[in-house]
Amino acid sequence: MVERGTENAEKDETARLLAALCSLSTPEEARAFLADLCTAREIDDLSQRLAVASMLSAGASYVDVSHATGASSTTVSRVSKCLNGPAGGYRMVLARIGDEA
Q1: Which InterPro entries match (predicted)?
Q2: What is the mean pLDDT of the chain?
Q3: pLDDT tens by residue, 17-47
Q4: 48 Cβ partners below 8 Å, 6+ apart?
């Protein structure tokens, strides 16, 4: 069971992280922040998920996406679920970077 104070602190920390991400203005700033925040492996994993979303959005099959990106079938499936889910984060970002299908 999560204590009430802990839950609020986690929400505050998440809000702070979101504000930090929104404060970034350039790819260079984003690269510097990610380099400080994440391991190289975590950045690679995030990059791979975006590549998977881009390929799925363009109509590629799960097998083709997995082979091209090296992502596991579980990762491809999870990204597909998010890509087609209600949050719309992948769709929004892909549209903004010109990678939408």
Answers
A1: Trp_repress (IPR000831), Trp_repressor/repl_initiator (IPR010921), TrpR-like_sf (IPR038116), YecD_YerC (IPR013368)
A2: 93
A3: 999 999 999 999 999 999 999 999 999 999 9
A4: 69, 70, 71, 75
